[in-house]
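ok here's the first one, seq then struct tokens
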Amino acid sequence: MGYATAVLIALLVYRLGLYLYRYTLHPLAKFPGPRLAAVSSLYQIYYDIIKDGQLTYHLQDLHKKYGPIVRISHNEIHLSPPSAYHEIYRLNTPLIKHHGFYQLFNLSNSSFGTVSNADHRRKRSVLNQSFSRRTIFELEPLVQSKVDRLVQRLEDEYAGVGREVCVHNAYQAVTIDTVSDFSFGISYGVLNNADFRSRAMEAFDKQQEAFLVFKHFPLLARLAGNMPFWLANLLMPDGAGFLEMEQDCRHQIQHLLSPAADTPPAKAGHPTIFNRLLEAYPDPDEKTIDYLAKEGVTVVSAGTHTTRHALCVGTVYALQKPEVGERLLRELREVMPGVRDVASLKELESLPYLTAFMKESLRLSYGVVGPLPRVVPAEGATIAGAFFPGGTVVIMDSYIVHHNEDLFPSSHEFDPTRWLVPNAKELDKYLVSFSAGSRQCLGMNLAWAELYMVFARVFRRFEMELYEHEGEGIKIVEHWLPTVRGEKVRCTLKVREV
């Protein structure tokens, strides 16, 4: 027997032994699930990569077959009971983020990428004030000014001239300009760009297409994340994803740190997130360009994608379901009698159908649609009545909660009235588009404000029709974030007469 043959046989025996251990003796062997998933990553690779982002949806079928707790890899458990969501993602949870998974984003020292719960609390406490409801109300004029610019361009360049607008880009523009001004005191100016296009967000979306490859082949993610910017631009001329967005944030932060720079609040006319960060970290070793830039990527990307998608989902369903759009318009006329009237955020929050419409838009846009893996502490944890040993990775996602038929009957139907029935307030707990607990989305209050203002102004000002849109809703796949398949949402519009 040759040396090479002996090595191959040894490797084969090792792999077979490993698979046998995982299937029969591993601490999670007692939990049901597909056999291949229990022993090999090939099962997830097939649904993630070969089937293009279908694993999250396939998990629903697995739960129907195996029950509420399913083993989906040798060390991963997926759960379906909605109550379990708030056991995993709660305040003061002993479970921590899965380092290997969140390392894929190359944002390890930001509040988003920080694994330690204690370190996260320290970093998050600095940012919380900037995103409190009080701060959002104080900065309402800033948000309103961005919405003003959006509706003015829609009227001047698109309404009544037969020119369709990509509302995906338009909503992206208003959200990214709001969050960049909110963060740095300087807007990215995407609302002024031709067709509302943003190179940084287009680059972000392109990189998101590769996320599932990075998930299963993390070395590629590390190579991409640590690539010099000039090389990334050379290899990916259409956009270098997070690196491009990080480069934009670096430029903004370098300006803020420059001794010659105007004082950010004085220049912007309002306190900025990064001015507060700079004040909170007087030690130069803590306020490094690298840390601040990665925090900037976290804020800008999270503050754009989720809100953009929720706006698109709500728009499509309001136009495909006339009874929804008509009822929404009737209610908006109560606080905005004229097509050019503007209602305050407080007035809009008092409108029950608009609020229900927004909740349903968030429910079917999901926020992060993919997995949120957490690691069980060394002493183990009991979740959904089952004990999991230390080191187990437990996973849930918004999709499995938002399509629980006991909570949301006919869950794939867009029905705002489900939020208006008696005891509907109890459903709020299970609207987890922004997740829950201490790791809940930082910009949630800003997102709600943008949804109120954009939906109200756009639907009150314009009559809209979908342009060459096929199928109900928006077709998405799961690349952790919802990733659109097919044409982006486009509309024709004209200014309402009354």
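and now the second one, same deal
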Amino acid sequence: AMVKEIVKPNVDGEARWVKKMGKLHFGYKRHSVTDENGLVIAEETTPANESDIKHLEKPLEKAKLPQGTPVYADKGYDSTANKDVLKRM
């Protein structure tokens, strides 16, 4: 039998595997808040297998955006709870 891939053992106790678009990825996700020029002003790092939906509020709080600042996020953050967070900001 031929070995196609050797999987290294998990040496990072906090990183996780996630399957995205049919491929496995090992590591982390960064939830970033950027300014209008694309510069990162706040972020949170989570294991790769955690859903985005739980990680909108914390980076926004760190960014300390002025009230009424438009916020754009992809559909991974879409939830009633996150819409309520945005209404309060």
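notes on #2: The longest strand covers residues 23-34. The mean pLDDT is 87.
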